[in-house]
Amino acid sequence: MNLTNKAVTLHDMSLRDGMHAKQHQITLQQMIDIATGLDDAGMPMIEVTHGDGLGGASLNYGFAAHSDEDYLKAVIPKLRQAKVSALLLPGIGTVDHLRMAKDLGVSCIRVATHCTEADVSEQHIGLSAKLGLDTVGFLMMAHMISAEQLLEQAKLMESYGANCIYCTDSAGFMLPDEVTAKIGLLRQHLSDKTEIGFHGHHNLAMGVANSLAAIEAGASRIDGSVAGLGAGAGNTPLEVLVAVLDRMGAKHNIDLYKIMDVAEDLVVPMMDQPIRVDRDSLTLGYAGVYSSFLLFAKRAEARHGVSARDILVELGKRGTVGGQEDMIEDLALDMARQEL
Ligand SMILES: C[C@H](O)CC(=O)C(=O)O
Ligand SMILES: [Mn+2]
């Protein structure tokens, strides 16, 4: 694989996907310290919101330590060069959230839908583009459909005004060949002006390999998290990816030692549990389950004595997708009754 001189924009997820791993309890000071550390290391883009995006704080997804507004107000004025993005899932986040984010200095809105539901993103993508924001369409759980179906959904988002489309491996299920096929087809058929992105989860330890496959196939934006802080076994660990990209001669503008230090000195010490491939997070990748379900399944295990692994396997069989968090408790209760 030759990535010499390939330009890649890395996008940090620690302060948004990492919110899942922290049950949305990152403090304002932790956000500021990590964001400014990343800014100083040269990270061009940093995402900041509740784990489920703008407006995610709720009974279904979990309440956050602070509002999205407070996190954005705390972080954005402290940054020297990094741009801040906000995730928005239509139906959870509203156009009012979007306008609020723009007013606070967010420059990129990433509108996320399940991979078959791009049609619900028209209003939010349209408004974001109209407001002149960097507008991304983010297709989640992309392993559940074929490359051709993903392309159809991507074209919808592109037609609504997105200037970048993401193939999102929410379950950390994909292997590099699948990433190559999906990103390759998007690159071939979307407009040359539309950027392609890849968002990985490390449940099968494929985060770095899949990101390299994505870049080779034409992706120019790659998501990851410092020390992998993210849902499941975490996102593609950015400091590792940076080291690999350095060795391959790709261009990313990030200082390796500085990002290593952010990982080691700031992010690892604040983890509530080690972010690693263990039997439960591995099951997410193996069974193709939404990574944010991990802690819900672990909590249900503690409450009802049913193994989180069994719950996750069953969620995979049922084809559950993001937004169905409330089903996890119901399922665990049913499974506990059957075991009596
Ligand atoms: C709302 C999700 O956490 C978005 C995401 O990061 C993914 O699908 O992966
Ligand atoms: Mn994710």
Layout of helices and strands:
Blueprint: E1 9-12, H1 17-21, H2 28-41, E2 45-47, H3 68-75, E3 83-88, H4 95-103, E4 108-114, H5 122-130, E5 134-140, H6 147-160, E6 164-168, H7 176-189, E7 195-199, H8 207-217, E8 221-224, H9 238-248, H10 256-270, H11 279-287, H12 293-304, H13 308-317, H14 326-339
Parallel strand pairs: 1-2, 1-8, 2-3, 3-4, 4-5, 5-6, 6-7, 7-8
Helix pairs in contact: 2-3, 2-10, 6-7, 7-8, 9-10, 11-13, 12-13, 12-14
Bound molecules: the ligand C[C@H](O)CC(=O)C(=O)O and manganese (II) ion (MN).
The site of the ligand C[C@H](O)CC(=O)C(=O)O has 13 residues, from loops.
Protein name: 4-hydroxy-2-oxovalerate aldolase
Pfam families: DmpG_comm, HMGL-like
Site (Transition state stabilizer): 16
State the helix count: 14
Instruction: Write down the overall mean pLDDT.
Output: 97
Strand tally is 8
Shape: globular
> Uncertain segments of ≥5 residues (pLDDT<50)?
none
Spatial arrangement of strands, main beta sheet: 1-2-3-4-5-6-7-8
Query: At the third CATH level, what is the topology name of the largest domain?
Result: TIM Barrel
Largest sheet: 8 strands, parallel, barrel
Oligomerization state of this entry? Answer: single chain
Structural class, judged by helices and strands? Answer: alpha/beta
Q: Please, how many domains?
A: 2
What is the CATH top level name of the largest domain?
A: Alpha Beta
Keywords: Aromatic hydrocarbons catabolism, Lyase, Manganese, Metal-binding
EC number: 4.1.3.39
Family: Belongs to the 4-hydroxy-2-oxovalerate aldolase family.
Domain Pyruvate carboxyltransferase: 8-260
